[in-house]
Design a protein that fits this description.
Blueprint lengths: L1 E7 L5 H9 L3 E4 L8 E6 L2 E5 L11 H11 L6 E7 L3 H12 L5 E6 L1 H6 L2 E3 L1 H8 L3 E3 L8 H9 L11 H10 L2 H10 L6 H22 E3 L4 H13 L4 H42 L4 H18 L2 H17 L1 H14 L8 H6 L4 H6 L7 H10 L9 H11 L10 H27 L20 H35 L5 H14 L8 H7 L2 H8 L1 H4 L6 H9 L6 H9 L7 H10 L12 H13 L4 H11 L2 H26 L1
Parallel strand pairs: 1-4, 1-5, 5-6, 6-8
Antiparallel strand pairs: 2-3, 3-4, 7-9
């Protein structure tokens, strides 16, 4: 079956065109050596493959590299339908010129016919066909006009090899004896030794394409549509009002991920709790019952509970991208982030991390530069996510007990300081990473400002579904396995149950005050997890922690907010009684010194530990998925643990 590759730059309407060609006769699957999904569909006896959007053959983002590798692997076999935006021909045809030099049979499809008409732009199709040497069609992927003619070309195999654009440049490359270096850079994504050669190539293509567009495209007077677009840019890109609107939009996105996800997340949490209770009451008592009710079901819940946040974030990102405002956000924030080795495209993932690092790391695919993308992946977990808030709230309430009823007080200032510390450390780590990393950097970064248009809602929902499914299938496996592992460590003991029961009987007989542990907390102390907590006590003792806090540190690796529940169990207090937990922590005594265990020094030490430590297996799982290697996740975990330990150590030693 002949393969037809759909290739184009982002915002060219390529996916809408794919949906028009294939209808419902399509599927999503993984090709050999490909780590993300590629969509394919059928048009009679032709297989249509929708490849991720790319900006240049020099681009080395993960999705663009997939397109490039797939294309280079099909040389001599496949044919290309190249999709270009009719209102952005100058930029889109530069990529077309690169593909034309590969001498693959192509059809050039100019999309958004309706916008050309609104903007009084006419294209001399005969002239453009003569210049490119291949069929050129005008379509509108929104309503399907022009699609029948494209289907005719595909069915009749009317593709032609286009004219080469920069053949003389390639001859110069050969004369200089560095052709192999250039070709290798295209195939493996590395940067060539002679960067200026690429810059000259891009500038030459830009001149050729500009001349081609001038000869074939005629622009009439600007209509109200284009004038309105320019008026909006005057406001949205204004140095003062533009920033204010940008912050307002980002606040809405950030708050939406919090607010709109809270109800479905509560539903999922409650549903999983009810399902766990049902399994506990239905399955006969024993290890299988506890495995299913206390490990399997909560493990599944630990994956699906993130679905609302991921879906909402990618829905909003899709709206911002399809309307054209996402490029404006990048433009506004670019100058500030450049000081830290980043670009404006990093702002969405960074600010999204305030809600949750998982969807934020997934959204780094919008970043072109591979070094910058890895820097954001590495640094973004330092932003204060929502999972840290329960830990912060309890510890701040312990050390500042007299703030209740006050709108302005020490508790709010401390929480603000922790957020600011997260931002500062994120930017500092990103700055250091971009200067020390050996990952190749894409110097050909460009920012395109597409025209404003209404979102394609169908494509947005398809993208939301695919991103959410990708997280559940890929990262969910790791989260589920680690959840069960932690349950096994907490549920079983190297000592027999009879021994533990006898020790608990002695304990209750000798301890009559109200602070004694219940049996659940006592069994946790004698579990493998309890012994592990006692085993790491010498390491964490300089931070002001004991083995009980050690258990909480280990279990909160599943998720930071588990710290609260673990502390509740260890101190025999229900996890929903926040006031009692706070009071109990205030009254907990360090048996060696006779002073409060959770004094100011210890609480600040713990707060700093949770600012820096990567206590989230879900984040590690998604880092592994997005980078394709465990080594990045492992190094990230080690680096942040060292930072957390040193800051916590310094705080405790200085304040105690």
């Amino acid at each position: 079956m002949q393969e037809i590759l759909l290739i184009g730059k982002p915002n060219s309407g390529k996916t809408s065109l794919f949906n028009q060609l294939t209808g419902l006769n399509q599927k999503v699957g993984n090709y050999a050596g490909v780590t993300v999904d590629i969509k394919s569909g059928k048009l009679k006896d032709q297989q249509i493959i929708d490849l991720p959007g790319m900006r240049s053959l020099r681009s080395v983002t993960p999705e663009e590299k997939i397109t490039k590798d797939f294309l280079l692997g099909k040389l001599g076999e496949a044919q290309i339908v190249f999709t270009a935006s009719g209102t952005n021909l100058n930029d889109d045809l530069i990529l077309f010129s690169e593909l034309a030099d590969l001498q693959i049979p192509m059809v050039l499809v100019i999309n958004f016919k309706d916008e050309l008409e609104k903007n009084h732009i006419s294209i001399n199709m005969h002239s453009l066909r003569d210049i490119t040497g291949c069929p050129v069609l005008l379509v509108n992927s929104k309503d399907g006009s022009g699609i029948d003619e494209l289907k005719h070309y595909i069915e009749k195999k009317g593709f032609k090899i286009p004219n080469s654009f920069c053949k003389s440049l390639y001859e110069n490359i050969t004369d200089q004896g560095i052709e192999n270096n250039y070709v290798q850079s295209l195939s493996d994504g590395t940067q060539p030794v002679n960067i200026s050669l690429h810059e000259n190539d891009y500038l030459k293509r830009q001149k050729i394409v500009s001349a081609m567009v001038r000869s074939a495209v005629t622009k009439g007077e600007e209509n109200e549509y284009l004038q309105s677009s320019k008026k909006w840019d005057k406001l949205l890109l204004h140095p003062v009002w533009g920033i204010f609107i940008f912050l307002t939009v980002m606040y809405f996105v950030f708050q939406s991920v919090f607010a709109f996800s809270s109800i479905p997340m509560d539903w999922i949490d409650g549903g999983m709790s009810n399902l766990s209770a049902w399994a506990s009451s239905t399955i006969p008592d024993g290890w299988l019952q506890r495995l299913i009710s206390d490990a399997v079901i909560p493990g599944i819940g630990g994956v699906v509970i993130f679905i609302p946040q991921i879906a909402i974030l990618f829905f909003l990102l899709g709206v911002l991208e399809h309307t054209g405002y996402l490029s404006r956000i990048s433009f506004i924030s670019d100058s500030f982030l450049r000081k830290f080795g980043l670009s404006g495209k990093s702002i969405i993932p960074l600010m999204s991390s305030w809600a949750c690092a998982i969807p934020a790391i997934m959204s780094t695919r919008i970043i072109d530069d591979p070094r910058e993308r890895m820097a954001v992946i590495f640094a973004s977990p330092l932003m204060t996510c929502s999972a840290r808030l329960p830990v912060y709230a309890i510890l701040i309430a312990v050390i500042y007990p007299n703030d209740s009823g006050r709108f302005f007080g020490s508790q709010g200032l401390m929480l603000l300081a922790l957020y600011l510390l997260g931002v500062i450390s994120t930017l500092a780590v990103a700055w250091y990473f971009t200067r020390r990393s050996k990952i190749p950097s894409n110097k050909f970064w460009s920012l395109e400002l597409p025209v404003y248009r209404m979102p394609n809602w169908r494509n947005i929902w398809i993208n939301v579904y695919q991103k959410t499914k990708s997280f559940v299938v890929e990262a969910g496996k790791v989260i589920f396995v680690i959840s069960i592992l932690l349950w096994l460590l907490a549920s079983f003991s190297p000592k027999g149950q009879d021994f533990i029961q006898a020790e608990y009987t002695k304990y209750t007989a000798s301890t009559e005050d109200s602070s004694q542990m219940n049996q659940e907390a006592f069994e946790l102390e004698y579990s493998y997890l309890g012994y592990l907590g006692k085993g790491i006590e010498p390491v964490i003792k300089p931070l002001g922690y004991d083995w009980k806090i050690g258990i909480a540190l280990i279990t909160s690796f599943a998720a930071r907010e588990v710290f609260v529940g673990t502390i509740s169990t260890v101190y025999s207090i229900g996890s929903d009684e926040d006031a009692t937990i706070i009071e109990r922590l205030r009254n907990e005594v360090n048996l060696e010194t006779g002073e409060p265990r959770y004094n100011y020094a210890t609480a600040i030490s713990l707060l700093l530990f949770y600012v820096f430590a990567l206590q989230c297996m879900s984040t590690l799982a998604i880092v592994r998925k997005e980078t394709g290697h465990w080594k990045y996740a492992i190094w990230q975990f080690i680096a942040f643990f060292i930072m957390a330990y040193l800051f916590a150590l310094a705080a405790y030693q200085l304040l105690s």
